[in-house]
Amino acid sequence: MSRPEIHVTVAPELQLFVNSELRRKRAPVAIDASSSLGHVIESLGVPLTEAGRLLVDRRPAPAAHVPAAGESVEVCAVERPQQVPGAPLRFLLDVHLGTLARRLRLLGVDAAYESEDIGDPALAALSAAERRVLLSRDRGLLRRREIWAGAYVYSDRPDEQLRDVLSRFMPVLAPWTRCTACNGRLAEAAKDTVAERLEHGTRRTYDVFAQCTACERVYWRGAHHERLEAIVGDAVREFGGPAV
Length: 244
Hints:
Layout: E1 5-10, E2 27-30, H1 37-43, E3 51-56, E4 59-60, E5 72-77, E6 91-93, H2 98-106, E7 111-113, H3 120-130, E8 133-136, H4 139-142, E9 149-152, H5 158-169, E10 186-189, H6 191-194, H7 200-205, E11 209-212, E12 218-219, H8 225-239
Parallel strand pairs: 1-5, 6-7, 6-8, 8-9
Antiparallel strand pairs: 1-2, 3-4, 3-5, 10-11, 11-12
Helix pairs in contact: 2-5
């Protein structure tokens, strides 16, 4: 005896998650009598973090809805900019997104990051404990129920990753205010107070410094500053923020 079916349409933005048969409009999907719509969507490969409005027979429905045979389901993409209610907008990035984490910090965005792989359960628990949006390219990690909020990073290229996150969440940008190494806050530092941490050439060449209030790392406008200014300038022009 064949199982009952619903007909599912997946938004174009989400079709990378599903097989070729589900990339056509109103693809048939077998269901049982107990699984929620959210469970069905995840079983197709779409993380719920990426699903926006769910429409059943053209009417909004929650992920807890238990679909019935013959229903037509439309899975929409998350609307951008996405609102994340209930906490200041902060991020947690998995071990594979170190460059993205440093670029977010360069822009003054609160971006926690573990340089060592602490494992999916620990990452999910940290997301919940600190109420951070977990960013990852690992679909399995984003399916963990304990995460507070999450988002799939669609590209493997840092420039595109940064634009993706900024366009999706529109965080407030405050360039040059965070330590790119540890995410701590930066403060102006007098040259004589950090002189012992500087090499002779740096002491002789530069006079303006900042220091992390957490890890005490010292920053100045060195050889890489022009490249970093370009990253900051592009982000500020496209997504807003104080003048560079």
